[in-house]
Structure formats: C-alpha cells, structure tokens
Design a protein that fits this description.
about 375 residues, alpha/beta, Carbamate kinase, 5-stranded mixed beta sheet, 14 helices, about 40% helix
Length: about 375
C-alpha cells in the first residue's frame, strides 16, 4: 500500500451500485469486505472516512426475489427498505470484526434544503466521526419523492463532502476514470488524468445512462466534480475494484481522473455551496453573452438587463438555475424577483425598473453573494 502520512484527513468515498454487485446482480459481500479492509487501513493512519453507499435497491431486489429492477415507485421503495437493512448489516459485520462501529445515515434532499436541517445533518456526521464511527450514508429512497430526490448518489456524496468540509471525494465506479469518449464504443478514447475546469466541451464528452442497477452515468459524476471544484475539494473518479484503490488514491498515486482547481483558486463560501448544491431549483433564468461574461470572469451580480428569458414558477428567495444562451448551466442563486416580476423586468435597466417598481430600486436579479458559479 501507499504511504498515506500527511495526506487528506477527511475522505468521502462513494460506491456505485454497479461496483457493489456481482455478475449475478447480488450484493458482492467479498468486495464489501475488501472495501472495509481498505477503510480500516486508512483509519489506522488517522484518516476519517465517510462511505456513501448505493446498492440498497439492488440488495432489496436480491432479498425480495426480483430478477430485474422494478419500474414502479412502491416496489422500488420496498426494495430500498429491505435492501438498506441488508446492506448496512454487511458493512456493520465487517467493520465490527475490526473493532469499528458503523453508523447508518439516511438523507433526502428535504433534509438539507432547510438551512437548519442542513446544519443538523452536518453536526450528526461530524459527531459520528469524532466518536470514531464510520458513517454509511445513502438516500432515504423509502420516503423520498421526485421533487426532493438527489437523483443520484454522486451528487449526494458531493453534498456530504461539502457538509463536513472533506479534503477528498472519491467516486468508486465501474470505469477507470473520465475518457475523451466512451471507451466501450470508441477504441481511440483516452483516459484524462487531470481536469482543472469543467465546461460545456467537457460535459459533451460524457455519456448518458448508467448501468442496469444504478441511476448515474459519467455526466452525473462530472456535475458532482464541478460543484466540488467550486468548493475547493478534489474529486477522483476511479475503478472501484482495482486492488487497494483507496490507499493508492489517498497516498497520491496517479489513479483514475483527478478533478482539482489550480493552486491558489478562490473557494466559495459554505452558504453559496448550500445554495448551489442542497437547494432545489424552482426555475431557470437565461442570460445574454455579456451577462455570462460578467458573472464568470468578473464575479458580478446578475442584473435584470442581462436576463433574456425565464422559465418556471418561483418566488422571491427561491433558488433558480442560471444558464447561458446555449442552455449550459453556469450557476445557481437566490432570486430577488418572483417569476411574474421577472417576466416584466427582464432586459430592463435598474433605473427603468425603479420607475414602476420603486420597491425594487437598485435590486439585482441575483446578488453575487448569493450566487454559486459552476
């Protein structure tokens, strides 16, 4: 194993369903045992580890006798209920043999969209780590609904990483890392070892759907990595079944693809990260090219004059997506106009708006202190 001394102290590890299950579609207990052995090795060197584990639905399918993933919500939630218990038992049994306690933490986005809930989740995770527990986190699929679902555990892992101020986020996947194209269909595809910025061209290289037992794909991993670039937390996407992959990554070996902003880059505040990652966007505003440049290059607030279109129904104080004319997501922020008001004021200068909406005098659409630029 690699020498891990002096490296990252808090590590969030996310394991996808496709990595957790074997060829028969059942939870691979041998793999989980080896994963826990790697976690124990990190723990012995003073590292604190949080495991974000997919696989509850897959484990439930096995326990309930489903041959393929159900498509109706009640059956999926039943699989998650049975599978979560089975999955946690496996982690707990292996870690207990090493004298380490395992704690189960189930979250929905509803738990973190509220600022108080977000802080409570952070306090719980921090206390578990202080007590020497390995938290095993998953989305609470038994009660989550579409509006408040994380959508995939790649983003859940990113939110957990920002919650606890992790030093490193590792996504254990069924692929070696991020390629210039899909390596299963393009023999010329090459592995990209380091990425410092994720833009529209980067996203265009990513494939779409994930595996038959998972919900994510490379695109979801890139979105999570892009968010953590803003947070200043490095992300590594690597093949989860590579021997001793966790010690190697934490020890600094070149494994998979590492996403890390250039040294000296500014990091966003915890509040901006909460706005951009935890909150559920209620709508979308589209900016013109000039406004995009001002936001991205100069860190400016968004003025109504730079807004060319608005979608969705939102109120003052809601979080909205901010997109370029091409539809590329460039950020999320807290809007200071309702959707009805934005229809009236988009494209107008502030002095014009003040004539018929004096209460909005000098008010930007989104202030830069409440905008996470992605």
């Amino acid at each position: 194993m690699a020498d891990l001394s002096g490296q990252s102290d808090i590590i969030v590890v996310k394991i996808g369903s496709s990595t957790l299950v074997n060829a028969e579609g059942a939870v691979d207990r041998v793999f989980i045992a080896d994963l826990c052995r790697q976690v124990v090795a990190l723990r012995k060197l003073g590292k604190r580890v949080v495991v974000v584990s997919s696989g509850a639905a897959a484990a439930g399918m096995e326990r309930l006798g489903f041959e393929k993933r159900p498509t109706d919500i009640p059956s999926l939630q039943a699989c998650a209920a049975c599978g979560q218990a089975a999955l946690t038992e496996v982690y707990a049994d292996v870690l207990r043999a090493e004298g380490i306690a395992c704690g189960q933490v189930l979250l929905t986005r509803r738990d973190v969209v509220d600022r108080e809930g977000y802080l409570n989740a952070r306090n719980t995770l921090e206390r578990l780590l202080e007590l020497g527990v390995v938290p095993v986190v998953n989305e609470n699929d038994t009660v989550s609904v579409a509006e408040f679902a994380f959508g995939d555990n790649d983003m859940l892992g990113a939110i957990v990483a920002t919650l606890i101020g992790a030093d490193l986020y590792i996504i254990m996947s069924d692929i070696d890392g991020f390629y210039t194209a899909n390596p299963s269909t393009d023999p010329s595809a090459r592995l990209i070892e380091r990425v410092e910025r994720i833009d529209a061209d980067t996203l265009a290289m990513a494939g779409g759907a994930g595996s038959a037992v998972g919900t994510g794909g490379m695109l979801t991993k890139l979105r999570a990595a892009r968010a953590l670039l803003a947070a200043g937390i490095p992300t590594v996407i690597c093949k989860g079944r590579q021997p001793d992959v966790l010690p190697d990554v934490v020890g600094g070996k070149q494994v998979g693809t590492r996403f890390e902003a250039p040294r000296g880059s500014a990091h966003e505040s915890p509040r901006k990260l909460w706005i951009g990652l935890a909150e559920v966007p209620r709508g979308t505003i589209t900016l013109d090219e000039g406004a995009c440049a001002a936001v991205i290059k100069r860190g400016a607030s968004i003025l109504p004059v730079g807004v060319v279109a608005t979608e969705g129904t939102y109120s003052v104080g809601d979080v909205v997506n901010v997109v370029s004319p091409e539809g590329t997501l460039i950020g999320r922020g807290t809007i200071r106009y309702s959707s009805d008001e934005m229809v009236r004021v988009r494209g107008l200068k502030l002095d014009v708006i003040a004539r018929f909406m004096p209460e909005k005098e000098g008010q930007p659409a989104i202030h830069r202190d409440e905008l996470l630029v992605l």
